């Protein structure tokens, strides 16, 4: 199950979601912007960076790592890349915090002794989704995160519950976005089912209405452009224009393909295959 793109979309839709997981969020949490960054020489890729508002002076930068597979060098990498990013941007920030999101404690790196000072301090927040409580008692957006960890036999009913809550609590635009996210999560969980079959299981139909198409295409296009920039560097005006003319289906295909890109040449080849 590819969770990186799901959590990217969650944080892109609702940056304040990260701070709902923390005991001591900043007072201006609602003003933070979400981004992902690549730190080169050596090249590190940070899952998410939450930037304080620029008009509020120096603030705290939050680094986020979503880890659903065992990695016995995770903390070595996370502390190296966050320290390097903070070093290079020291004039912009007064402090840093790291948030590591795990599905459960069993996924955490086994040997954490060398990092005892960081992990036992107040700068590193370890979140275990299966310990947040009953999905139905959580804030809606946090519930979406926990849905990625729910057992397959319970997932459909919990997904339908979140959809019912969304229809009551959120605006039409946000509700459509949540419907799409829930459907995407369930498609990844039940890989043997098509998207249409998943929608039927959930009792919904994401019709190709103007509202849905606009939300879907705008969000997908923005996500793809940002990910491409992180992968292959700044896009030229010609390439950017070409990406902006892609259909929704082509954007989704590009979203899968770009994970294997290492240079601008890879993107150029992919675009040429469309012609």
Can you walk through the features of this model?
- The protein has twelve helices and five strands.
- With 275 residues, it is α/β, with parallel strands linked by helices.
- It folds into three domains: 4-131, Trna Endonuclease, Chain: A, domain 1, CATH 3.40.1350; 149-205, no CATH class; 210-274.
- A five-stranded mixed sheet has the order 1-2-3-4-5.
- Helix 1 (4-13) runs antiparallel to helix 7 and helix 7 (172-189) crosses helix 9 (210-232).
Question: How would you describe this structure in keywords?
Answer:
275 residues, alpha/beta, Trna Endonuclease, Chain: A, domain 1, 3 domains, 12 helices, 49% helix, 14% strand
Instruction: Summarize the main sheet.
Output: 5 strands, mixed
Compute the gyration radius: what is it?
A: 19 Å
**CATH class term of the largest domain:** Alpha Beta
| CATH T-level fold name of the largest domain | Trna Endonuclease, Chain: A, domain 1
Give the count of helical stretches.
12
The figure for the number of domains is 3
> What structural category do the secondary elements indicate?
alpha/beta
Instruction: State the shape.
Output: globular
N/C terminus separation: 31 Å
Please give the order of strands in the largest beta sheet: 1-2-3-4-5
Give the ordered list of helices and strands.
HHEEEHEHEHHHHHHHH
- Uncertain parts: none
């Amino acid at each position: 199950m590819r969770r990186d793109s799901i959590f990217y979309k969650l944080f892109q839709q609702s940056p304040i979601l990260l701070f709902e997981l923390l005991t001591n969020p900043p007072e201006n949490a609602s003003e933070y912007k979400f981004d992902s960054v690549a730190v080169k020489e050596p090249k590190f890729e940070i899952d998410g960076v939450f930037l304080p508002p620029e008009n509020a002076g120096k603030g705290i930068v939050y680094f986020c790592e979503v880890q659903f597979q065992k990695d016995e060098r995770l903390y070595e990498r996370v502390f190296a890349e966050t320290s390097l990013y903070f070093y290079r941007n020291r004039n912009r920030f007064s402090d840093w915090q790291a948030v590591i999101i795990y599905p459960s404690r069993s996924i955490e790196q086994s040997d954490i002794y060398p990092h005892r000072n960081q992990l036992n301090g107040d700068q590193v927040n370890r979140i275990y989704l299966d310990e947040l409580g009953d999905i139905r008692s959580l804030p809606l957006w946090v519930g979406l995160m926990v849905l990625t960890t729910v057992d397959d036999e319970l997932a459909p009913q919990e997904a339908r519950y979140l959809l019912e809550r969304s229809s009551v609590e959120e605006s039409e635009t946000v509700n459509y976005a949540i419907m799409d996210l829930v459907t995407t999560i369930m498609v990844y969980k039940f890989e043997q089912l098509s998207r249409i079959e998943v929608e039927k299981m959930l009792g919904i139909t994401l019709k190709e209405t103007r509202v849905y198409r606009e939300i879907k295409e705008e969000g997908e296009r923005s996500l793809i452009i940002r990910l491409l920039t992180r992968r292959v560097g700044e896009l030229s005006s010609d390439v950017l224009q070409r990406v902006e003319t892609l259909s929704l289906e082509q954007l989704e295909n590009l979203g899968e393909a770009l994970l294997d890109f290492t240079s601008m040449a890879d993107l150029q080849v992919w675009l040429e295959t469309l012609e």
